[in-house]
């Protein structure tokens, strides 16, 4: 079987406050997302989002069902969003071949039975995905950066000059509850999602990439008045519960993918926290 998904349970903010470094990394960090010829990831009880990577190297990889779902095929009751962080590749969706370029997204709705990921010619197919429960079916759709709702925020003076590409949001494509997008930091900028925020209506996951081997990101999480951090390398992800802030600063600029699941599809639904209020 070419798919391996771990289960991780949700946690209470009072418990989180006493976790040590190893416990925080064990519960929230996804380190080895890309395994050759495998689909790997985590089924988190935080809104039952599945977070993971797909890395076909020298043979196609099929999206098979997993034991946690108790369903005959993976997307019987789910939707999935895929963003390509490697080379261009072909994805088969119920027999239709779709070419997906670097930093392009693909939405596949509930009810699709056969999804196959084909390797790029150089074996550098790296696909990051989020999958959420779905109550109805929407059509498969490819979304390019040109299709995205785009906004540029911040400034170089504040080290947070960045462009946000809203790829899988309800102003661009119909989904049930899944939202995904990508934020690119400009050279010289390192801070993301600052001022920080929380949103009780949905959880979030971050995936960091475009980092050179010697660079890292310190991702901040926890309740606004009792924060912690996790150090992440290139091609690693972190799970953020609804009660947690999600922000970060790197030793260089980088790109990250944000994905959300929950009951509110309003991208702007955020409870902001001033930097001066963080502890």
From TrEMBL:
InterPro entries, A to Z: KduI, KduI/IolB_isomerase, KduI_N, RmlC-like_jellyroll, RmlC_Cupin_sf
Pfam families: KduI
Cofactor notes: Binds 1 zinc ion per subunit.
Signal peptide: none
Keyword presence, Protease: no
Catalysis: reaction(s): 5-dehydro-4-deoxy-D-glucuronate = 3-deoxy-D-glycero-2,5-hexodiulosonate
Residues that hold Zn(2+) according to the record: 197, 199, 204, 246
EC top class, as a word: isomerase
UniProt key word Isomerase: yes
Pathway: Glycan metabolism; pectin degradation; 2-dehydro-3-deoxy-D-gluconate from pectin: step 4/5
CDD domains registered for this protein in UniProt: cupin_KduI_C, cupin_KduI_N
GO molecular function, one term: 4-deoxy-L-threo-5-hexosulose-uronate ketol-isomerase activity
Source organism, top-level taxon: Bacteria
Cofactor: Zn(2+)
EC number: 5.3.1.17
Family of this protein: Belongs to the KduI family.
Cited function: Catalyzes the isomerization of 5-dehydro-4-deoxy-D-glucuronate to 3-deoxy-D-glycero-2,5-hexodiulosonate.
Name of the protein this chain belongs to: 4-deoxy-L-threo-5-hexosulose-uronate ketol-isomerase
Organism, as annotated: Algoriphagus ratkowskyi
Gene: kduI
